[in-house]
TrEMBL record:
CDD domains given in the database record: HTH_XRE (cd00093)
HTH cro/C1-type domain ranges (all copies): 17-71
UniProt protein name: Helix-turn-helix domain-containing protein
Signal peptide: none
Xref: InterPro entries: Cro/C1-type_HTH (IPR001387), Lambda_DNA-bd_dom_sf (IPR010982)
Native source species: Larkinella bovis
Alphabetized PROSITE patterns for the sequence: HTH_CROC1
Protein backbone atom coordinates (compact mmCIF):
# COMPACT_ATOMS: atom_id res chain seq x y z
CA UNK A 1 0.00 0.00 0.00
CA UNK A 2 1.50 3.33 -1.01
CA UNK A 3 0.93 6.59 0.87
CA UNK A 4 -1.84 7.70 -1.51
CA UNK A 5 -3.79 4.51 -0.87
CA UNK A 6 -3.17 4.87 2.86
CA UNK A 7 -4.58 8.41 2.87
CA UNK A 8 -7.67 7.28 0.91
CA UNK A 9 -8.21 4.45 3.40
CA UNK A 10 -7.89 6.91 6.30
CA UNK A 11 -10.31 9.36 4.63
CA UNK A 12 -12.94 6.63 4.16
CA UNK A 13 -12.75 5.70 7.83
CA UNK A 14 -13.15 9.31 8.94
CA UNK A 15 -16.14 9.75 6.62
CA UNK A 16 -17.79 6.72 8.17
CA UNK A 17 -17.07 7.96 11.69
CA UNK A 18 -18.87 11.24 10.96
CA UNK A 19 -21.77 9.47 9.27
CA UNK A 20 -22.18 6.97 12.12
CA UNK A 21 -22.10 9.72 14.76
CA UNK A 22 -24.71 11.74 12.89
CA UNK A 23 -26.91 8.67 12.31
CA UNK A 24 -26.75 8.02 16.05
CA UNK A 25 -28.04 11.55 16.56
CA UNK A 26 -24.96 12.64 18.49
CA UNK A 27 -22.95 15.83 18.38
CA UNK A 28 -19.23 15.92 18.99
CA UNK A 29 -19.99 17.48 22.38
CA UNK A 30 -22.37 14.64 23.27
CA UNK A 31 -19.70 12.08 22.42
CA UNK A 32 -17.16 14.03 24.47
CA UNK A 33 -19.50 13.88 27.47
CA UNK A 34 -19.16 10.07 27.45
CA UNK A 35 -15.48 10.45 28.33
CA UNK A 36 -14.21 8.41 25.38
CA UNK A 37 -12.50 11.43 23.79
CA UNK A 38 -12.54 15.19 24.17
CA UNK A 39 -14.48 17.25 21.65
CA UNK A 40 -11.17 18.52 20.27
CA UNK A 41 -9.87 14.98 19.75
CA UNK A 42 -13.11 13.94 18.03
CA UNK A 43 -12.88 16.93 15.72
CA UNK A 44 -9.26 16.17 14.83
CA UNK A 45 -10.06 12.53 14.07
CA UNK A 46 -13.10 13.42 11.97
CA UNK A 47 -11.08 16.04 10.05
CA UNK A 48 -8.25 13.60 9.37
CA UNK A 49 -5.75 15.48 11.52
CA UNK A 50 -5.34 12.61 13.97
CA UNK A 51 -5.45 8.84 13.66
CA UNK A 52 -7.78 6.72 15.74
CA UNK A 53 -6.53 3.77 17.73
CA UNK A 54 -8.38 0.47 17.58
CA UNK A 55 -9.67 0.53 21.16
CA UNK A 56 -11.20 3.96 20.61
CA UNK A 57 -12.72 2.78 17.34
CA UNK A 58 -14.35 -0.13 19.18
CA UNK A 59 -15.75 2.20 21.85
CA UNK A 60 -17.13 4.63 19.29
CA UNK A 61 -18.61 1.81 17.21
CA UNK A 62 -20.45 0.57 20.28
CA UNK A 63 -21.65 4.09 21.14
CA UNK A 64 -22.84 4.64 17.57
CA UNK A 65 -24.59 1.27 17.39
CA UNK A 66 -22.34 -0.03 14.62
CA UNK A 67 -20.24 -3.14 14.21
CA UNK A 68 -16.56 -2.23 14.04
CA UNK A 69 -16.43 -3.78 10.55
CA UNK A 70 -18.70 -0.95 9.36
CA UNK A 71 -15.69 1.35 9.53
CA UNK A 72 -13.34 -0.89 7.55
CA UNK A 73 -13.49 -0.05 3.84
CA UNK A 74 -13.86 -3.09 1.59
CA UNK A 75 -10.83 -4.28 -0.31
CA UNK A 76 -10.77 -3.44 -3.99
Amino acid sequence: MDFSEYRQFHFKITEKLVKAREEAGLTQNAVAQTGILSQSEISKIENGQRYIDFITLILLAKLYGKDVNYFVPPEN
